[in-house]
Amino acid sequence: MSEIPVEVVRSRRRKKTLSASVVDGTVRVLVPAGMPADEERRLVDALVTRVTRKMRAGEIDLSARALQLAAKYGLPHPESIEWSDRQNTRWGSCTSSSGRVRISIRLVQVPGWVLDFVIVHELAHLEEANHGPRFKELVGRYELSERATGYLLALNQPTQA
Length: 161
What we know:
By secondary structure, the chain is of the alpha/beta class.
């Protein structure tokens, strides 16, 4: 998805909170009229990032992708797989008892092969709960595992000022 236009609308009626919606392909953000410019910029950027991630996530069929990867790599199918906007430190999580997989919405920005690695990683947990040798063998079936791990490690590094 290309860069989406943003329109900031200052409202005298709004006192504290911001809200955002997509109107005709533009993210329209309503902000209190008296908000300081630096705070407005910071909050608008964060809100636009969240809205954009959700839009991009809607374009990716996680269920179909997980089923395809499970079949290709001989892994169990999840009972459900969904995006999570609450995972800020993990890339994914799996509840093996229920077969539920959650993928961090932060991954909408990565190349597909990196997303596939995280899905394979979580599907492997459906069979092997720990990170022992059997688990590593299951994840190692994905030919880009090592490269994807490096990509995610680099992505997690704090930026230098």
